[in-house]
Each structure stands twice: as structure tokens, then as C-alpha cells.
Amino acid sequence: MHSPPETTQDPRHPYTQRLVKAAPSLASRRIESAHAAGVETAADELVSHDVDADAEQVVRVENLTKVFEVRGAKGDAKTLTAVDDVSFGVRRGTTTALVGESGSGKSTVANMVLKLLEPTSGTVFHRGVDLSTLSGDKLFALRRTMQPVFQNPYGSLDPMYSIFRVIEEPLRVHQVGDRAAREARVAELLDMVALPRSVMRRYPGELSGGQRQRVAIARALALKPEVIVLDEAVSALDVLVQAQILRLLAELQDELSLTYLFITHDLAVVRQIADDVVVMEHGRIVEAGPCEEIFANPQESYTRELIDAVPGASIELYSVP
Ligand SMILES: Nc1ncnc2c1ncn2[C@@H]1O[C@H](COP(=O)(O)OP(=O)(O)OP(=O)(O)O)[C@@H](O)[C@H]1O
């Protein structure tokens, strides 16, 4: 069963075509894992009694709008609509990629989904629960169920903290287990992201970019979240390391039944990881649907244009089964 994110926009928008054209060829595609699911998530403790008919869409945004007040060239106050009436859903256990050029509003949507930023209007639902209605304990619990992974793992990992402390921190903040239990959990998390346990005693500055991003993923997994919002999480990595991290993310998704909202400007990455794609331009959705449809069934003239523009690479892009 495959129900794409809903959108009222026309398919095959020229803007999406431009983005596809800019995508490099693909070296690999998503690797399926045979591991069984069944891990209890923090979300089960949060709102299971509130689940409504929309529960298939673990995250849903409706008519989401964000207007910033900015200063004009002459210092005058102006408004900027960064996100304009955006609606889409993210199906449980799948990956929805939010794509678009720089400044199209992707991170602003991500920050509203994570409740790091309040919408000007519109609603974010998690398991059918309107986030704006949550406060106190319920909001604190929500923080466990939705975790971010950002682009720059060096920037987001405190260089003064050992890797143990970095990964342990969310467990401490949420008062999960005693010191021994937390140590065991950090060791388990390092196993999950395929880092040696000896890394615990190292510092972020001693690790490679790929290793640091594995640490960031381990930290995001610490509280057994249901949803991970990845904002340009592999953009700073070279292509080979990128492929390794994408493979790890796909395996973790299968093992832990994770739901990903994956923000990127890179359609080659989208093709490797996404089930559904939402394309944004100037704060609005211009196209949305299943990844296979967005990539594999372009209009004939579009295919021709693409093949002409990027010989070889484009053929490979569309011949991936
Ligand atoms: N706090 C803020 N105050 C004012 N304007 C902002 C703020 N945050 C974002 N913007 C503006 O909103 C628009 C959308 O930014 P956003 O970061 O969401 O885009 P993006 O698609 O994620 O691009 P990028 O990948 O470059 O971050 C941009 O014009 C940006 O300058």
C-alpha cells in the first residue's frame, strides 16, 4: 500500500525538473535490511490514547505558514513568508524527503515540526495530536519521540564533551536509568551505528566527519524516538561516506521502525533514501508524490531534455530499478 503525501499542486513541475537535472548520477540505492522490527518507542508512552484515524501519518502538517520579520536594505521593517500554506504527511516507518533549493523553506518547516519554532499559522500533528496543545510533561515527552540530526556534526557536538557524554546527555536530561544503565545503553548505541566502543573515550575533534555523524545518529536514537528529522544530515560528507551513512539509516529504519523526515537539496540522495518526496520552492509545495513516480516517469520531453543535458548520468539515474 502506498499513499503519497497529499498535495493540491500539479505534478511534473518545471522547478522539480530543474532540481532533477542538477542531480548527479547515482552509485548506489537503498539497501533493504531483513532485521525484524518491534522496538518499543518513547512515543508509546506519550500519546497512544490520542491516536486518531490519521495515525498512519505519524507526522502531518496542515496549512503551515511562517512569516519572519526582517530588516530591509534601509533598515525598514519588512515581512518574509518563509513557509506558505504547506500541507503534507509522513507515513509511519517511511522516509519523506523535503527537497528544494537553498532558501525554499525546508529548515523552517523542519524546525516547526520539531517545535523549535512556532508557526505563524497552521498546525503540526504528531500521531494526530496538535503540537500547539502540548505543554509541560507532554511536551517534554514529545521531545523524546522526535529527534533531530543536523548537517554539521562538528558544530552540533560539543567539542569539550567525550563521545560517551555526547550520547549519554539526552538520557541524563530525561533521567533515564542510573550511570551503569546509561553506560550499557551508550555501548549498545555505538554498536547500532557500527562504531567501536572504544570511541566512548574520544572527543569529537578526533573523529572523521562520517564517524561524527554516526555519533549524532547514536545520540538521536538514545531515547528510542519514533521520528527523526534529518536536516541536510549527509550534505557535508563525501559521496562514499554519504552512501555508508544512508545505508546505516536505511538499516536502522528497518530495525527500529523509524520514520524519517529527510531535508535535503540533493536529489541524488533523495533517490537513494526516500519513499515520498515533497518539493518546495519559495516556501510553497510545487509537487509531491511517491519517489518512484517523481523520478521514474517524467514526461517524454522532460526525459529527452534531461538526457541531452547530462549524457550517461541521467540514463543511469532513471534506469535504477
Ligand atoms: N530566523 C529567521 N529570520 C528571518 N528570516 C529567516 C529566518 N530563518 C529563515 N529565514 C529565511 O526564510 C527563508 C527560508 O529559509 P530556510 O532556512 O527555511 O530555507 P532552506 O530551504 O532550509 O535553505 P537552506 O538549505 O539554505 O537552509 C530564507 O529566505 C531565510 O533567509
Please explain how this structure is put together.
This protein is α/β, with parallel strands linked by helices and 321 residues long. The protein has a single domain, classed as Rossmann fold (3-Layer(aba) Sandwich). It is built from 13 helices and ten strands. Strand 4 (121-126) and strand 5 form a beta hairpin. The chain is globular, with a radius of gyration of 20 Å. The model is unreliable at 6-11, 24-55 and 298-321 (pLDDT under 50). The structure holds adenosine-5'-triphosphate.
Question: Tags for this entry?
Answer:
13 helices, 22% strand, globular, 321 residues, 38% helix, 4-stranded antiparallel sheet, alpha/beta, Rossmann fold, binds adenosine-5'-triphosphate
Short account of what is shown:
The chain has 321 residues and is α/β, with parallel strands linked by helices. It has helices spanning 14-22, 42-47, 106-113, 136-145, 153-156, 163-173, 179-192, 209-221, 239-256, 267-273, 291-296, 300-309, 313-319; strands spanning 57-71, 77-91, 95-99, 121-126, 129-130, 146-149, 227-231, 259-264, 276-281, 284-290.
